[in-house]
Amino acid sequence: MSQHTLDCRNLLCPMPVIRTQNALKELSEGELLEVTCTDPGTLSDIPTWCRINQHEVVSTEEDKHEIVFIIKK
Amino acid sequence: MTQETSSVNTGEQPKQRKAVALISGGLDSLLAAKVVQEQGIHVEGINFYTGFCVEGHTHAIRKKDKDKQKRNNSLWVAEQLGIKLHIIDISEEYKDIVLNPKHGYGANLNPCLDCKIFMVNQAQAWAWAEENGFDFIITGEVIGQRPKSQRKETMPIIARESGADDRLLRPLCAKNLMPTLPEREGWVNRDELYDFSGRSRKPQFELAKKFGFEDFAQPAGGCCFLTDANYSKKLADLWDARGERRYELDDIMLLKVGRHIRPKKNFKLIVSREEGENNFLRGYKKQFTSIHTVSHGGPLTLLDGEFDKEDIKLAAQIAARYSGGKNADQVTVQVENYKGTSFVMDVPPMSAEEVKQEWHV
């Protein structure tokens, strides 16, 4: 399965959500998108946006500076 | 033959009508969408990002707000309603609204009426698009709720100038207005819409209670920084210093953060107030000259504008004033330009009195 990447570092919410939304639009059902963020607000916003728009957050990894989401369309 | 007439002739289920609701994250738009949803209409939300949205940003930047919930209210509203939410970045096109509002500003630099017209227009362009196929637009407007944009006489102006005309439904005050297309066609029942008016929020609170909504957001002054007097003052200062009215997205982001101190017209300092802001400003080091104190703990400072060596010394003395070395004879600072080239200098910190009150933007 192909995996796409999206760099949302140094962007503040809601920009990472908007970029994620627009990137997913270009993908086919079942494809994966890896999104890298630095705004801690994304920890709440990206999973919420995925929930209401019926996409799946496959994993969330967080270290001191970055948060990496894998999202399945 | 259209789908609509065929359904009448054959007795099939009437067409499922679709409405797009402008969702700000506040209570009124939540209720407006809910009222229409309750009538069996398929509702989806649309939310616009102007760059001036109070939502999210500041909470994410400032550490002192860490305990506050960092939820995005428009996403929260969509989840409460169980609807999809489409977030649209209009920050670039929005500049023209802020810089040249046809209907003028409100109490501050808030172009509320032009803003509403623009948003309804954008929602309409999105909603009528063939692949989206929506029938009408919903807003949470209430007559008399806001002094600049939500008045009896502005309601038809918004409908007309946005191009949405009578496909613009305001469920919370519809009974005070002429029937719109969705009402006349019977897509929604006018009797089950509302007649709210005035600044009182009581009817909204009662309706929220009826629907079982709790914990909704109630930002003072709405959800836009342009209604904030201090913010507008900083934006006006930026235009004044540059000698022209223009801004980039980074400019308006930075106006939300730190102390802004302008000792001379040609440049200003943006001094972080705490760790969260420090981290945020660090992200701009490749775009601005920055100052940080080396001999003592202290904030990160960015310099915005044009400055010479003397100006940098002055800035360093001000930055030192906000460091742990403010009472020391000398503070060592590192000055780094956007290319990463840096040098170190010792400066005497300014006293509190020397940092003049009128420098604070």
Automatic annotation (TrEMBL), chain A:
First and last residue of the signal peptide: none
CDD domains (UniProt xref): SirA_YedF_YeeD
InterPro entries: TusA-like (IPR001455), TusA-like_sf (IPR036868)
Top-level taxon in the UniProt lineage: Bacteria
Pfam families associated with the record: TusA
Ranges where the UPF0033 domain occurs: 4-73
Family recorded in the similarity comment: Belongs to the sulfur carrier protein TusA family.
Protein name per Swiss-Prot or TrEMBL: Sulfurtransferase TusA family protein
Automatic annotation (TrEMBL), chain B:
Coiled coil (residue ranges): none
A family per Pfam: NFACT-R_2
InterPro entries: NFACT-R_2, Rossmann-like_a/b/a_fold
Residue span(s) of domain NFACT protein RNA binding: 258-359
PANTHER family linked: THIL AANH DOMAIN-CONTAINING PROTEIN, TRNA 5-METHYLAMINOMETHYL-2-THIOURIDYLATE -METHYLTRANSFERASE
Protein name according to UniProt: DUF814 domain-containing protein
Taxonomy of the source species: Bacteria, Pseudomonadati, Pseudomonadota, Gammaproteobacteria, Kangiellales
